[in-house]
Each structure stands twice: as C-alpha cells, then as structure tokens.
Design goal:
The protein has twelve helices and 19 strands. The chain is an alpha+beta fold. A nine-stranded antiparallel β-sheet has the order 5-6-7-8-17-13-12-11-15. Strands 1, 2, 9, 10, 14 and 16 form a six-stranded antiparallel β-sheet that branches. It has a two-stranded antiparallel sheet with strand order 3-4.
Length: 541
C-alpha cells in the first residue's frame, strides 16, 4: 500500500495519513491497480472503486481501511460505454452494476497501521477471498521517493536498495530507514521516472521507469525492473493462493531502528501484535469519549467511519506560486503568458503543509470553503488540528496582502462565501464544551486577521458603499450563465442577494466572537456593537 510524504512514499506515514491505494493483481486481471480510475460518468467524473475508511486516531497512531477488489478483469470499457448511453436523469452506473462482484468473486483487502514509535510504523494487510473458489492474489506493498531531482537544482539523489531481504532507504535529510517485509517476497526495484517513451515517444531519462513493476507483474517483462535491486521505487511481491473464505495476512514494518537477531528486536515478534492490540484498544477508548453511548451500534459505526474519513483525507499540499510562475531551474522555461495567468497576483503564496482535502483521491486540492466546513467535525476529535487549519489560511503566506483569503487551487483570487468566522467560532465552542475551557488566544488571533478580511469585502465587493455585495462564487456552486467573478458582458456589475446575506452572517459571527472575547477582555465590547450596527444596516438594504 502507498502514501506520499514530504520526501518519500511509504506503506505508512508519520506526519499525515496514508493513502489507501496500492498495487494488487488477480490471475484474471489485465492491469495492476495503482490509483482509482476517474471515469467519465453521466453525472461527471466519478471514482469507480469501493473503498472505505474505517477508523483512525487523531495522531494516526492507529488507522484502518477496507478496499474491495474484484477478482475478474476490471471493466473499464464497460463503464465508459454504458455511461455514454446514460443521460443526466438516469442513475449513475457504478462498479457493482457491472456484475464484476457477482457470486462474491472479490477480495476484501483490509489495511491496518499502528505506530510503535514516531518513526516506527507497523503495517498489516489482511486479504480475504470472498469468492466460491481458490484464487490467486498478487499483492505489492510499494515504497518510493518523491521525484524532486528531475525538476529541482538539488544534486542529492535518494536511494532504495535490497539488503538481506529488507528494503533500505537512504535520504540526505531523513537519514536511513528500513522497510521490513515478512516472509520471503520478491523485491522489485525501478526508478520513479516518467516513461517518456510510452507517453511522448521520446527517449527515457533512465533505463528503468516508474511503471516497470507493472510491466514485470502483468506482462512478464523481466528486464523492466533492475536486477541489481536498487532504485527510487520498490515493491515487495507477494503471490497469495487463498481458499474461499480464508484470510491471509502480510506484515510490514517501516522503521528508523534496526531490527533482527543482532539487536534483540524482532521486526515481527510478539511485540508486533502487542503494539497493534495496544493501539486498537487506545482507539476504542478514545472514541468511547467521542461517540455518544446512546447511539445504536450501526449509528456508532457510521459516526466512526465518517470521522475516519476526515482524518484519512489529510494530505501534504505543496504549491509555491512564484516558483510555478517562473519555472523550475532544471526544467524548460514556462510560456511567457503564465506570468499573467492564473494566480499571478498571488506570488506571496507558499503552501507546504498538511491540509484537510475535500477528498484525497477524487479532489486532492486546496479549497478554503471546504476546509472551513471540515474543521467543524475535526474539532470533535482533534480541535488542535482544526484550529491550526483555520489559522493557517490567515497567515501571511496564505492570506493576500489586501486581506483576501485564497479560494481554491485553480483561482486563489475568486470570492468564496465568508464562512471562516463561523467555523472559528464553532470550533472554539466545541472545544470549550469538550474540555471545559475555551482557547481565547486562538479566538483572538483569528479575530484580528478576520478584521483584515472583512475590510477587503467591504472595500472590494461593496463598490458603492451600500452594503450590497456582488460577484464571486457565493454558495450557488460554479455553474452559471456567466462568470460571476469577471466583468459582466456590456459593463456594470452584479449585486447578489446571497452576497448580502453572507455578509450579514459574517457580521453576526464577528459580533459573537467579539462578545466571547469581551468576557475576558472588556475592550472588545465596542467592536461587538460595531458589527451589530453593520449587520442591521446590511439587513435594511
């Protein structure tokens, strides 16, 4: 299974949650699963996979997910062709509608992660044959380094190599790590390099490319992987013949510690199971304080999985706008028009943070509107992370110097509904109720930055000073007869009732924050009355 972290991708992550995707192949498949295919549907793009986030602690000390993998050939063509026949009034054509799961011919692939220590990640993959016959599963836990040597000016090249059945990792900043693989899998190595010959018809930069492991397993191309067993991407190939209803487990361990007989620490000894039991019990104990006891078992399970989905959907997001505009030093210069293109007014934007994504598979990009809503359920399980996310968007390397909050990746300058104050207030109150004490320092920090954002709204979206706010994506999605962020055809500007309503809502939330702060600092009383008057004026318009 795989994930992406700052410098390398691994079966487990210490800084954020891992991605559930991996590589697996049944004997009747024609391709190796490596990422969820987003196929065109009659309702737009849609991920045609069945995966479920089941559990996660806020610290990611324990995580669990389930992937349902068909044993037959994946029906790519059938999904595309059927969706072409369906109109927007027809139901979505899903994977299960293709018949690929008939007679229960599929695998349940359950993946668990547990931390023995900050840099010691235990992984267990349980594959269950749900079908009526014995079947073969090729399971490939995969690890690789993020390729930043191709486009950067760094001459530091990381490496993976085999050493006594262990995949060794060596990287200049992170030092050495080891991926221990239980049993005796075949270790396959290649480079995390684009297959330019396949994509563009040009020569490859390296003799081994990132899809070499796929070619080895699916097509039997032996020369597609490095026989010297080193590179920047590697997989441990497990071939499992599993009887109906039987579960087989694969265990792995990514650690900065050396394990083995010489050290007295066995990577998969009794301590491995004890750590998993400990983390499972800690997770159960924690959620016993979060999920209401009066809920039914089914409702508790729904809430557990919903919160797990929020925690699993964190991802490291890296976007340096100035570098993107100017181009990477080791790559050809971008076209001149890029400097006047999207986000060109946001050169200060420098994002390199773990962020809660709308969806880590289908929508893995930055969106401040979504993030504000995410913080509400996140506050139930991890109020510190929720507060950090809200403050992050108001920091000087995110917020525009004019006070605007960046909207989303493809157009930071768009206007989203002002929901940040509402979210911050809700997070403050949720934490205060859970802990019995409010974080007034957080609330004050947010409030002062929101004053800058409020001023931007008043000066930029209320051009005539009448408390009527116009333009932008204001809660009615991105679909419209024309772009509400641009000038109207024929001149003029658009006044929107929902824009005025959102601003009235913004005023009331800023007033409520000021009143919360006034309880500990009376000076904020005057600010509260100011926003009360502002909201009354807006309502009168």
């Amino acid at each position: 299974m795989r994930t992406a972290s700052r410098e390398y991708a691994t079966p487990g992550s210490t800084s954020a949650s891992p991605s559930p995707s991996g590589t697996a192949k049944t004997r009747s498949s024609r391709s190796v699963f490596s990422a969820p295919p987003a196929l065109k549907g009659n309702h737009g793009e849609d991920v045609k996979e069945l995966y479920y986030y089941l559990e996660s602690t806020p610290t990611h000390s324990y995580m669990k997910m389930l992937y349902k993998y068909p044993q037959g050939e994946y029906p790519y063509a059938n999904l595309v062709e059927e969706n072409k026949k369906r109109g927007k009034l027809d139901p979505e054509y899903e994977l299960i509608d293709t018949g690929i799961f008939d007679e229960d011919r599929y695998w349940d692939v359950e993946v668990e992660y547990a931390k023995a220590d900050t840099e010691d990640i235990l992984i267990q993959i349980n594959a269950t044959n749900r079908g009526p016959e014995t079947a073969t599963l090729h399971l490939l836990p995969t690890i690789w380094f993020r390729n930043n040597w191709t486009w950067s000016d760094s001459d530091k090249h990381p490496s993976l190599y085999a050493a006594k059945g262990v995949i060794e990792l060596d990287e200049i900043y992170l030092g050495r790590r080891r991926l221990y693989c239980d049993g005796s899998p075949d270790l396959l190595f290649t480079e995390n390099e684009t297959n330019k010959k396949r994509l563009f018809g040009s020569e490859n930069d390296a003799p081994y490319v990132k899809d070499g492991i796929n070619d080895f397993v699916v097509n039997g191309t032996k020369k597609a992987v490095n026989p010297k067993k080193h590179g920047t991407k590697a997989s441990a190939l497990y071939k499992l013949d599993i009887k109906p209803g039987v579960t087989q487990s694969v265990r792995l361990r990514l650690s900065d510690k050396e394990h083995g007989k010489a050290t007295g620490r066995e990577p998969f000894g009794r301590a491995f199971e004890e750590h998993f039991d400990l983390r499972r019990n800690e997770s159960a104990e924690f959620y016993g304080t979060v999920i209401p006891g009066e809920l039914s078992d089914d409702a508790k399970n729904v809430m557990m999985q919903a919160l797990a989905g929020m925690l699993w959907s964190k991802q490291h997001y890296h976007y340096e706008v100035e570098r993107w505009l100017e181009g990477d030093p080791a790559e050809p210069s971008p076209p001149p028009e890029r400097k006047n293109g999207r986000n060109c007014q946001w050169r200060h934007m420098f994002a390199s943070d773990v962020i809660s994504m709308p969806d880590k598979w289908e929508y893995p990009w930055f969106a401040s509107w979504d993030l504000a809503f995410h913080c509400i359920p996140l506050a139930i399980v991890d109020s510190d992370f929720a507060k950090q996310q809200l403050i992050l968007l108001l920091r000087e390397w995110y917020m525009h110097p004019n006070g605007q909050i960046p909207a989303y990746e493809w157009a930071f300058g768009d206007a989203n509904p002002p929901v940040h104050a509402w979210s911050a207030l809700r997070v403050f109150r949720i934490e205060k109720k859970r802990k019995g004490q409010g974080d007034y320092e957080f609330l004050e920090r947010v409030f002062h930055k929101l004053l800058l954002n409020f001023t931007w709204w008043v000066n930029r979206k209320d051009q005539e000073g009448r408390h009527l706010f116009q333009g932008g994506f204001l809660g009615l999605d991105n679909i419209g007869l024309f772009d509400r962020n641009a000038e109207l055809p024929g001149g003029g500007f658009l006044e929107q009732a929902d824009g005025t309503a959102w601003m009235g809502f913004y005023c009331l939330n800023l007033m409520a924050i000021a009143l919360e702060l006034a309880a500990v600092k009376p000076a904020y009383e005057d600010v509260a009355t100011k926003f009360l008057e502002h909201s009354r004026t807006s309502a009168a318009r």
